[in-house]
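Recall the central idea of this unit: under ordinary conditions, the amino acid sequence of a chain determines the structure it adopts. In this exercise we apply that idea directly, starting from the sequence alone.
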Amino acid sequence: MPDRNSPFHFLSYKPALAVTAVLVAEILLFYAVPTKEYVPSPPPLDVFARSVGPWSMVAQFPLDADSQRILKADDTLTRDYQGPSKVNFFVAFFKSQRAGVTPHSPKMCLPANGWAEESSSILSVNVPGEAKPIPVNHYIVTRDGQRQLVLYWFQNWHRATADEYVSRAYMLYDSIRYRRSDEALMRVVTDFDGRADAAAEAHAIEFLKEVYQPIKQQIWSTPTNAAILP
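Accordingly, the structure predicted from this sequence is:
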C-alpha cells in the first residue's frame, strides 16, 4: 500500500498519474528537443465582427489587470451579443505555449470566483463548414441564486477539443509535427432561470454555430505576419 505521508502519494491515483505523465512528456519533448516554432500574429480580436447571424454586439468589456496577469493570453475578447437571447462571448488567444502559458479551463477559474458546478457533460455540435461535429463542454454553474450555462472548447487552426488534458497532448503532437502551439479558449455563456432553460440552451448553441467559422477565420484563415522562435 502506498505511503500516505509520501509527497508522491498522489501518483497512486490514475488521473493524477496521467496528468503527471503528460506534463513530463511536455518537458522532455517540448522544451528539451531543440526546434524552431511558428508563432502567428493575426489581426487583433477587437476587430472581430460586431454582428454574427441574428446577433449584434451590445457591449464589450476590457479584461481587468488581475485577470490578465493570471491568464497571460496574447489577446482576449469579451462581448455581449443580443439576438434571440443574450449571450456572452469570450476568447483568449495564445500565440505560443512554449513558455508554459496555456489556456485555463473554466472549470478551474469559475469555482475560484465562487461559482459551483451543477452539472458537466460534453456535447457533439454539428457546425456548418466542419466535416464532423466538434466536442463542446456543457457546464452549468450556480452562485447566489444565479444559474448559467457555459459552453466552451479549445481551438487551434485545425482542431477543436473539449478536454484540457487531451488538448495538451495534441499540443505536444502539433509542436513536434507542425512546429506550432497556438491555441484559443472559446466560451459562450447564457443565463438559466429554470423556466426557459431549453430555449436558452438552444440559442447558445445556435450562437456557437454562427460564430464558429467567423472567429476561426479571424484568427487562422487569413495571411498573417509570423515570427519564428529558435
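Residues 135 and 222 are 24 Å apart (CA to CA).
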